[in-house]
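Exam revision sheet. Question 4 asks you to relate a sequence to its structure. Input first:
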Amino acid sequence: MMPNITRGSDPRGLLRYLFGKGRHNEHRDQHLIGSSRDMQEGFGCDGKPAKSFAELEAMFDRRYRDRLADGRPCPPDRRGRSNPEHRDGLDRVWHCSLAIRAGEGILTDGQWESIVGDFLHRMGMTDEEGEGVTWLAVRHGLSQNGNDHVHLVVQLARDDGWYNPFNDRRKAQRACRAMERERAELVELGAVLDRDHIRYSYREWREWAEWKARQDYHGPTSWEELSRDERFGLCARVMADTMPRYAIGRIVRACAKASHSEDEFIRRVRREGLSIDPRLRKGVGKGTFTDRGQVVGYTVTWRSADGWHERLNATDLGPDMRLRELRKHWSGNPNDSNLAVMEWRAAMENRRPGMHQGRERRLDALTTHDMSVLVDKAWRIARSIDTADREERDRAIIAGLREFDRILDRYGLEELARADMSGMIPDAGTTLSVRL
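Answer key, structure tokens:
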């Protein structure tokens, strides 16, 4: 976790920025995730400001006005020679952004709120109940660099004087390192990075977001006529919601964990609509490929319906997803080796799987991911049929039945009852019931 500290004297301007659109229109769903008790009435249940920024500034500066009245108008490090113009309240607003690097994970509001409270206590700013200073924490999506982050704003004036920000950057670094070792949500992020991290650069993420935003844009003007800030705002919305490389990696990982043999893994990956190709040992070609030991790696390719290609090597999916590591947990008898060669050849030549009825097509081998796909497909079919127009509904029923047949074949469920066809009469509140 990365802290970044700045100081200022304009709480109204800072709050206006945090709850605004951002410098490049990148702010989305700006909302409060935590605050001291004296700031809570300034915000609604949705975390949006319930008062004007002038009123919020007055609430935020309450303790500062008390210090101004008793003759101590500045923080300790902004007195005397550090403030030759004798400005009251100079740099009284302490602003810190706590960020998780792009691609390392995204936390929930509740997790961030708990982290912020712990951070303030470790910095010596608040007591165990989170009080002692006026503070608030604001969240508004990912940063321009793709970091999940939260903004923390603190009034340095306290009830008993001023908080001394001496060495605050060093304290913040120590607090973040300690939390990374001690807090479960941050420890888990670190474990995932060490064990399961799917590698991608910010450049790759930005290229995807810009391409996707351009594809989805249907405004009154062309993409090229949009301003730089407008284009970045559209890209930021895509970046905040999607990262295909990460989703692909999770699917491949689920396939690997659910498989008992190499050939089963290949079939599972292909069943998810992904292409998988072997990386053969140097000097081995298609004509001389006869043993699975000649395969030293693999690549997975995803092609979206609108034309995007994403290609990942095994090393991009994490160190434990390399083929030699996966083989430690798979069956290695001669029959499995022959089946693996057969499936690798089928994958290379883009043919149907060599083994049509593998273990992965048995009901007891369905994974949580499989079930989530089945439920999602069933809901999509049911929603497509839910239309008032009779002709459209009839066409949707036919398309739904065809899709249902493809689902049954894809997951090897033909032996089950396919559906209750008595409920498929178009005239009577049509529904599609799937019995799994």
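Marking note for examiners. The chain is about 40% helix and 15% strand.
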